[in-house]
Amino acid sequence: MQHDVMQTLFPVLLSDLCTTPDLVDKDELIAAGLGPYLKTCLTAVTGGGCCVDTPVSIKLFLGKSLVFLDKQGRKTASHPVEKVQVKFTKSWFTGNMQ
Q: How confident is residue 89, by pLDDT bands cut at 50, 70 and 90?
């Protein structure tokens, strides 16, 4: 089955993410449009915050959707949905006090 959602959102990321986790480096994350989210300043006064350590582990897999009640009160059938597992660590930085 093709994982079209992931490829549509992030076409520059590696396409074969469904078998094993892939390590995605900083340049690939920036090319995928995630650059602004890799480093965040949390305090305006000191400029301190946190940043994502790279590489990031990404794995694509299939899961099942939740079962809901429709308007008639009947349970809807679950169906396959794409899921993305992202494992990363973050580091804190203090910024400059100048």
A: very high
